[in-house]
Amino acid sequence: MSDPAHDPAHVTATEHGIVRVFHLSYAVSMEIGHMGTLDGLATALGVPELDGRDVQIVALAEVREMGLTEFLKLGYEISEDEIEPLRAELDGLQGKVAILRTGAFGGRDVHLATDKGARLIAAVKEGGARPPTLAHADRPAEGARGTLGAPESKRRPSDAAMSGRVATVALLVLFALVALMVWIGG
């Protein structure tokens, strides 16, 4: 198993960019297929719930020609150095696997059970995964300082502006009257 800098069965609340591959037992894969939820996988991993946006269930028969290692390299940008030592084991699997990004655990600190129907095969670094930008405590918050004053009151329109508006309305009324007279007379 690749070393993601800690115990691969432990997910920290601040972890980012780790992809875990679990080989699913027949019972867990059938439960996922029949129930249409990830509840069986969550139970097998010993976590309360999983975020489905970061979980992919793969039937290995569907990627047989490509192989699971190539699937991971292309789909998750796993580096060749990271995946090569796992190639024989990954490409030798049958059945279904669950591929989980760190986000699947909802930012919780969890220790995964790997003996209840989901066997941890690999934990590798996802390519292109940048650490999230957390609170900007190191940057001054200039925009948050001070108090807001009372809003400036709107200026009253000048007499010339008001005269212009009155003249425009008067011309529109005259135009409408002329048009009405032409229509009646025509």
TrEMBL record:
Question: Transmembrane residues, as ranges?
Answer: 164-184
This protein's name: Aspartate carbamoyltransferase catalytic subunit
Residue numbers spanned by region Disordered:
130-159
| Keywords of the record | Membrane, Transmembrane, Transmembrane helix
